[in-house]
């Protein structure tokens, strides 16, 4: 910014500086590791919880309404507030952030998992039942495979959202790149640190998006064939 | 004294209900910021989404904006505006929240307008409607339930995300939460968190009513006379074949 250069006593504060990246490799790598590990832990926990919950609310239809309603209400609570009120219980540890983010991811996953299972056409189910499929085989051989595209889309959307939300963990000192963003702000508005950390976060999210899109393609070869035919 | 009692004490303390940093003032500021952000995002997203949806082009563009939008950390954007010449102002928060709200509004509105029935469009064209008449009299009314669902999701998320303003000292009800956190004052922390939750859930309730009011009467009832279910605020799925081209 030229405005800063016009004042002789004020040091330059560029938006981007290779020197910052070069001199802070260790710092950036540490932030990256934390960002990735918090995202992974939160996502794995959310998937492990969401899958049986989705199956249960399909099995017992009466559960579906309350489960989704509770999920909807929880989803409106800001991440900042969720992390702040979990802190007295779990302290200034990554666990506080992981639990809060797992809850948000859980809500996205639940909606998509249930939508995926609901989206299986009833004539397909009927046909399978007519072929003598037991309930268990119907679930694992027909329903779940057909729900996979919607479920994976949910995993992708939740992962990308989680990567963005990790930054808010900076509140308890475990925000991955978010901690650098906050530090840059508190450290005399250090623009290079703020922009670098923000861009790194975006890059990580885009990388996750592209990777998971690839997984979706690989997991649904029939959709690929259909696309090629269309 | 339990945390709940402490929170209650904080909530009923008249000192927390007056002045520039009282609960009403901060809540009102948060509402204002969120409304401005939604208006700004609408001005940007709606014309583009309606134009693209009407012509049924740009699916890849709309879905890419939606996907990239999710990847942008609002905290980073907010702080970047704060350290730019804009400075620590309400405007910086409005801008950052608008950046956050444009992608979902754009994607939802695009999908809603694009997915209006071909036959309905043909009928409108056959009646001699001009393109803009088709948009305002046919496509938008039919797309309204889905557009409104998108607004509901976006509005609630904007209201929730507005609390990040507290990180840069720009107020909102996130401020007493952060101060309570900093002072390790659980009463204030939970009392203020309760206020934020009430504000966000109220936003959800208000937007549900708005969604219902915006849905044309004919679309509110199912064919069998029962009230049609309101469309849940789900992420719209964009045809991924757009990526293949």
Structure description:
- The complex is a heterodimer of chains A (230) and B (245).
- Chain A has 230 residues and is mainly alpha-helical.
- The model of chain A is unreliable at 1-5 (pLDDT under 50).
- Chain A is built from 11 helices and no strands.
- The longest helix of chain A has 35 residues, at 25-59.
- Chain A has helices at 2-6, 18-23, 25-59, 61-76, 79-90, 94-118, 122-130, 135-166, 177-186, 191-219, 221-229.
- Chain A has one domain: MetI-like fold (Orthogonal Bundle), CATH 1.10.3720.
- Chain B is mostly helical.
- Chain B has a single domain (3-13, 23-220, 227-239), classed as MetI-like (MetI-like fold).
- Chain B has helices spanning 3-12, 23-55, 59-71, 74-82, 90-114, 118-126, 131-161, 174-182, 186-214, 217-220.
- The radius of gyration of chain B is 21 Å and the shape is elongated.
- Chains A and B meet through helix 4, helix 5, helix 6, helix 8 and helix 9 of A and helix 3, helix 4, helix 7, helix 8 and helix 9 of B.
Q: What is the overall silhouette of chain B?
A: elongated
The CATH homology group name of chain A: MetI-like
What is the CATH class designation of chain B? Mainly Alpha
Give the CA-CA distance, first to last residue of chain B: 64 Å
Q: Secondary-structure element order of chain A, as H and E? A: HHHHHHHHHHH
What would the average pLDDT of chain A be, to the nearest integer?
A: 86
Task: Considering the chains and any ligands shown, give keywords for the structure.
heterodimer; A: 230 residues; mainly alpha; MetI-like fold; 11 helices; elongated; disordered N terminus; B: 245 residues; 10 helices
